[in-house]
Design a protein that fits this description.
The protein is 29% helix and 29% strand. It has a seven-stranded mixed sheet with strand order 3-2-1-4-5-7-6, sandwiched between helices. β6 (178-191) and β7 form a beta hairpin. It contains six helices and seven strands. The two termini are 25 Å apart. It is of the alpha/beta class.
Length: 209
């Protein structure tokens, strides 16, 4: 996500998938989405802030088509290489920064994972995503539950230290979504500087239009 305090995701795109913790997180988030949402082969989906496409490709077998959208050309290049290598015909990439642009089409499913904390105006983003849903369409957003700021070793581009369940559900409700729910989709274990280990829960909030 592009902000005044923006992390250079292009610079780290090539090594992004080399962190096992990220692979496990994406798998857990995809599994939670599959349990919470009636995915089907007729869905046209969008993964906003897709990065290297870990969640995008995890959902790909369960929807009709999915677009991975991100503001980082480097990340989209990594995803494009995966699409080509796997010969996938139902996955596309889309350069997109909803803090500067708007979506020009609607979707049956919009998901996002670990992107919200890089977005300055989260209520505006939720409103934009909800507006882009087709009638009956689903929105599923995953991010850290409220934490004390120690999760990120490099705070560059981090604008929020997680979110509460009440906040996310409230924003979904404010935009007219129904069937609201929030579950713990994953738990990330990280070692602190003193050698101790801490677990950080990742929330998944879902609702439909």
């Amino acid at each position: 996500m592009r902000t005044e305090n923006k992390r250079d995701f292009d610079a780290v795109a090539g090594q992004w998938d080399q962190e096992p913790r990220r692979l496990k997180l994406a798998q857990d988030v995809v599994e939670a989405m599959r349990k919470a949402i009636p995915l089907n082969s007729g869905m046209y989906a969008l993964d906003y802030g897709c990065g290297s496409g870990l969640v995008t490709l995890g959902l790909q077998p369960f929807v009709g088509h999915i677009s991975g959208a991100d503001s980082s050309p480097g990340m989209l290049e990594v995803l494009n290489r995966k699409i080509e290598a796997q010969g996938l015909e139902n996955v596309a990439t889309m350069p997109l920064d909803l803090e500067k642009q708007s979506l020009e089409r609607s979707f049956d499913l919009i998901v996002s994972s670990m992107t919200l904390h890089h977005v300055r105006d989260v209520p505006a983003l939720v409103a934009s995503l909800a507006q882009a849903l087709k009638p009956g369409g689903w929105l599923a957003l995953a991010d850290l539950e409220t934490e004390d700021g120690r999760f990120h070793d490099d705070p560059t581009g981090v604008l929020h230290h997680g979110f509460s369940r009440d906040f996310l559900i409230g924003e979904f409700a404010r935009n007219g979504l129904d069937g609201l729910g929030a579950v713990t989709a994953a738990s990330i274990e990280k070692s602190a500087a003193d050698g101790s280990s801490r677990r950080y829960p990742v929330l998944l909030c879902v609702g439909h239009k």
